[in-house]
UniProtKB/TrEMBL annotation, chain A:
Record-given protein name: STE20-related kinase adapter protein alpha
Family recorded in the similarity comment: Belongs to the protein kinase superfamily. STE Ser/Thr protein kinase family. STE20 subfamily.
Alphabetical GO biological process terms: protein export from nucleus
Family annotation (InterPro entries): Kinase-like_dom_sf (IPR011009), Prot_kinase_dom (IPR000719), STRAD_A/B-like (IPR047173)
Residue intervals of the Protein kinase domain: 23-326
Domain of life assignment: Eukaryota
TrEMBL record, chain B:
CDD domains per UniProt: STKc_LKB1
Gene Ontology terms: cellular component: cytoplasm; nucleus
EC numbers for this chain: 2.7.11.1
Residues annotated to bind ATP: K96
Organism: Cephus cinctus
Name recorded for this polypeptide: Serine/threonine-protein kinase STK11
Location in the cell: Cytoplasm; Nucleus
Keyword Metal-binding: yes
Reaction(s) this enzyme catalyzes, per UniProt: L-threonyl-[protein] + ATP = O-phospho-L-threonyl-[protein] + ADP + H(+); L-seryl-[protein] + ATP = O-phospho-L-seryl-[protein] + ADP + H(+)
Stretches assigned to the Protein kinase domain: 67-327
One GO BP: regulation of cell growth
Amino acid sequence: MYSRVAGEEGKSSIMYDSSPNSYHGMAHLGTCCSGTGTIHLALHKPTDTMVVVKKFYIDDRTPEDYNLVEREIIVTRQLQHPNVLPYLATFVSGHSVCVVSPPMGFGSCQDLIEEHFPVGLPEVAVAFILKDVLQGLEYIHKRGFVHRAIKASHILISSMGQACLSGMRYACEIVKNGRWQKNIYCFPSSTANNLKWLSPELLLQDLHGYNEKSDIYSLGITICELANGVAPFTGVPATLMLTEKVRGRAPHIIDCKLPKHAEHENTNDGDAGSSNSTLAAIGESILEHFSSRKFSESFHSITVQCLHRDPSNRPSTSQLSSHPFFKQCRKSDETVVDIFKSVPKIGRRDVDSAGDYGVAMSAEQLANLDLQSCHWDF
Amino acid sequence: MDNRIAICDPDEDEVNNELFGDIEPVTWVNDDTNYDLDEINMAFHRVDSHQIIYEEKKKKCKLIGKYVMGDLLGEGSYGKVKEMLDSDTLCRRAVKILKKKKLRRIPNGEINVQREIQLLRTLKHKNVIDLVDVLYNDEKEKMYLVMEFCVGGLQDMLESMPHKKFPLWQGHGYFCQLIDGLEYLHSKGIVHKDIKPGNLLLTLDGTLKISDLGVAEALDMFAKDDTCTTGQGSPAFQPPEIANGCETFAGFKVDIWSSGVTLYNITTGEYPFEGDNIYKLYENIGKGEYTIPAEVEDPLKSLLQGMLQKDIDKRFTLQQIRQHPWTICRPPKTLEEVPIPPLRGDEWHTMTVLPYLMEHHYGVDNDPTYYTEHQLNEERKLQEMDRTSGEQKNACNSHYNKHITNHGKRRWRKPTSCISVKKFPSCKPS
């Protein structure tokens, strides 16, 4: 089972095979999918290129977890776009299902915020990232999917500064029985981690249903997350988050225009603005930083448009792409790579320095050798 | 005494209503409890309906485990079904609330419930209702079966339409899902025994869910065939072998017959067998003679005939149904889809937990709303008028009006499970 690399950096001719023996190294980078999988950096020996291998240990997982993994692979393999993370190969190794994807040098936007930009990304960086994400999302919508999990942790940045969407396991088909549905109604399962980003109409689960405009709302929440360094409704009980969204209280990006009194509002007085729900999770020094910075008018307006309570009033992906907010991308001298230059990239040295971990991984692989490994072909 | 305000909640079921049966419990607001009984004139007073004042029930947020309680969705044979919201995942749920006290009064009540729980726990299929959680409240002797949320059932949809039937393409969609779910149940060795439109529910996205496994039977793992001995399903959907009182019968073929009656019903708006009472009905079923309306054309007609075969051996199997030309070929979408009827006037079936959450988080609307018995009566009259005028209209417009005029026949179409709860006031010596 061979596959072609989509897009990035002139590698399009490389074929990745699905033999576990072709991959070496396996430096541990972290976990993914709320602990279901582990991420490893690996060397594809036949071509001497770096790849990322996601390992899902299936045996001790619930059928729901397993279905999510299966679904993610099936959906992702159907898509091919420079701004959607591809799976280059999938195979079974021992008790694990492994998927191979290109290394995304800067990791996810959530990691970037957490480790390097606690007060949020600079406006121009958000513009660059958002521009790529919109391309990817437009493609996903055109292919008949609602993503349903747009959030910073599902936006990955390559070492060339290109943003890619991942997290297709929560996606839902718009086409049913060969018909393009005007609305869809199914509530995503295992979605507890994504609730903060979901649109009010999706959360309401009634006969109004929702459509791809639901992703635009999630994009609005993601913009706030990227700009503020923390996702709106962090630390807010899920039920309060629901009523806030239903009442049409949209979060916003926080700068000097933030009304002063908002900081001292009482959360019980029925006017518990969602800005508060963001502020609750933010420290004093960061608040000071917020009140000293200023975002552009178009940045504020694109956020407000995305977070419109009525989905029909939200712009589509193509309408958003021509928003004046993205003018700064052309004017800017900086690129995403310049902005992130202080951020250490994931690279070859991670494999070399894998040390004991690498040994441990090979030991594990040896232990699994006697088990017959079967190929997961579909 | 005349100025008392009665708080009466049509929904509340907490108060001991052992004595009064279905009379609504009443508590008095400004009751001093220590009235001297001798001083009170024990004669009946006539009170004007304007003077009986009710206070509307406050939307008080109530938690059962991690679930927030919502409004009533319907009444099952064992008790109330209410809406709930999972406060972690924000997923809508339905909950069947069962009371031990009530269960004990129903023959096999507790055993049937335990069996249903055990059965549902082992089942997982797109077209079979999913039991999500079971909670117990030992103090109140209540049991909560948390299920997948469904917006409506086929029976309610049929009843909302003048012709009491679906367009062929819509009925076909439901029938195929019924067969999928039934095939799964049978593969697990389970005979449902009560397939009927009333037990076929729909989720928001239109997925059919076979529900109410209260009288279902799980065959012994080592049983050599599907022989059953007891039938407790709804009379109009029973096959001839049960109507004739056979001691044993093939279980799977019972479900096939009931599905046949269901298909007959949802595509024609009529029933193959009717009777003024259960004896006449069973007599008619027992003979196995029925007519298929003239407008039913051939592939469907032969499918119905195959499923409604009096002779068990000639009756179709699920495989034959699957391979039947009518099942394979989806009819064209010609007529408008029958929608899910509104719940208490709400066509969108909005989350009923929402007002409770609003009250909980914002404490809005603290002023109680009052209304009088008189207003309530007026409203009831209006509703009654609406309904009767609607029925008259139906009767005029439809050539199926014999359903509406003949009330005797209609009785047997109601879901009359033998183990349904009857609210009889229990007599106690005073």
